[in-house]
Write a structure and sequence with these properties.
Layout lengths: L4 E2 L2 H17 L6 E6 L3 H10 L4 E9 L5 E9 L4 H5 L3 E9 L3 H11 L5 E10 L13 E8 L4 E2 L7 H19 L1
């Protein structure tokens, strides 16, 4: 059995729609969405359909070409006129996965330095494992669609052949159903 978790665009869309409902029900009303690239871009855009707010994109590099973590995260792209756009605002920070939490924590510290009113975090998958960093104490709201075991997650936007990805997704679901029986 492949030890990876395969997800489809439809899976992501349904998860984001559910998370949008959770955010709204929590009474957190963000002024802006900040998407961590590249994994947070697509979930952020889907979320905009349900919570119509401007999206700012940031680029943080923590993994090298070989998918191994580097020494520490580095800013690749950041928000222009950041103080004007974030100071006193409610920010919803989005990424696809909370793996080691190092990238999320780094980005949160950077955002906090611009004195927002509040920041919440939203991820599709939260890996159930020991994290390499903690959230700053200012973070009170965390939304995760799924808590998953520590396995590699294959997102559709990373697929070179989407048809092959879909086949693996169906095989993965079938295998998971067999394991439950």
């Amino acid at each position: 059995m492949d030890t990876k978790i395969y997800v489809t665009y439809n899976d992501i869309h349904r998860a984001v729609k559910r998370l949008a409902g959770e955010v709204t029900a929590s009474s957190f009303d963000p002024d802006v969405i900040v998407a961590i690239g590249s994994g947070g871009f697509i979930p952020a855009r889907i979320l905009k359909t349900f919570i119509n707010r401007p999206i700012f994109a940031v680029g943080i590099s923590y993994y090298g070409i070989d998918n191994k973590p580097t020494g520490s995260p580095q800013k690749i792209q950041w928000i222009d006129e950041v103080q004007q756009k974030l100071s006193g605002k409610k920010i919803l920070l989005i990424d696809e996965v909370d793996d080691t939490r190092v990238t999320l924590s780094y980005c949160l510290e950077e955002l906090i330095s611009h004195e927002p009113d509040e920041i919440a975090v939203l991820v599709i998958h939260n890996k159930q494992k020991q994290k390499g960093a903690s959230f700053p104490r200012e973070i009170k709201r965390y939304f995760a669609a799924f808590d998953v075991e520590d396995r590699w997650i294959k997102y559709p936007w990373d697929a070179q052949d989407i048809s092959e990805h879909d086949v693996y997704t169906k095989q993965s679901v079938t295998q998971a159903e067999k394991e439950v029986q």
